[in-house]
Amino acid sequence: MILIVSNERDSASDLFVESLKKRDLSFQRLNTDVLMTDASFNIGVGVGSVNHLTQYGRDIDLNKIDSVWYRRPVLPKLKINSVVEKKFAERESLATMDALWVSLVDKFWVSSPYAIKDASSKFQQLLVAEELGFNIPETLITNDVDKVSEFFESCHGLMLYKSVTTGHLSSVSAKTQLMTYSRKIEATDLSKMVLVKNCPGMFQKYIEKEHEIRATVIGEKVFSAKIDSQKYPEKRVDWRKGRYIKEIFSVIEIPRSLEIMLVNFMRRFGLQFGAFDLIADKKGNFVFLECNPNGEWAWVEDCTKMPMTNALIDLLINKSC
């Protein structure tokens, strides 16, 4: 049986469930956002077989789980008014969720939450990528204003700012999600760099692009999509910026040697899934930017029709792909 660990609002999990139903496969979905409001669970040590969970009135025998898709868990909703008590309950909830994952440690994971955590550092990714032979952009993480200016000069005025983490900001309302985009820094921006004193940033040498590539690795299968970001001015620095344009995405074949490097990167971190962002520069070189170890993929399948959902299901069933 496949266990999907996600949340009620995740549309990718909805699509995945429909595919599982079409293939008549056994599964259960655990939405962690309602873990404390619409579920009850028991996990234990030395007290017999009590690894059991009930959600929405459905029983989930954790002992019958064969593989786990760790898709998009979130912090459980808590009906607690006291700020102090709520913070305590949140810590207890997170620790309890971790205990749930530990109780399933012998199952096949796509991917293990601990592997995902280890692979989430952008700086660590760059170190490993360079070691594996990838081209990487020169990178500086700093809160030193003078070093930002020095790095700008060393890049001959071609410098990019990006967040050290995901770049997502807290929503100002339930309907709004804020995020920071990668931004090309101009000389006139340097006077504003005093802000990094309190909020460090990642600065990279800006690379002129021919196009970009989103390479999604599932097991050892690589699904590569070309992103024609340079056709639209607002997308040249960060293709996510501006309106969604489906036509800029298409299937592309990348060198087998590059695919092997991507798979080796996955193995280094113990991942079964990874969404890689790469650049094809003006000279025909491929440049590693980062890997999202639990990134979005459904939009890639929608745009390119590559069979990624089935590859993911096959991986969870066969435990190799």
Keywords:
single chain, 321 residues, alpha+beta, Rossmann fold, D-amino Acid Aminotransferase, Chain A, domain 1, 3 domains, 5-stranded antiparallel sheet, 4-stranded parallel sheet, 28% helix, 28% strand, globular, MvdD-like_ATPgrasp, ribosomal S6-glutamic acid ligase activity, MvdD-like pre-ATP grasp domain-containing protein
Number of domains: 3
For the record, give the distance between the C-alpha atoms at the N and C termini, rounded to a whole number.
17 Å
CATH homolog superfamily of the largest domain: ATP-grasp fold, B domain
Number of strands: 18
Q: Write down the overall geometry.
A: globular
Helices and strands, in N-to-C order?
A: EHEEEEEHEHHEHEEEEEEEEHEEHH
Instruction: State the assembly state of the protein chains.
Output: single chain
Main sheet: strands, sense, barrel? 5 strands, antiparallel
CATH domain topology of the largest domain = D-amino Acid Aminotransferase, Chain A, domain 1
Uncertain parts: none
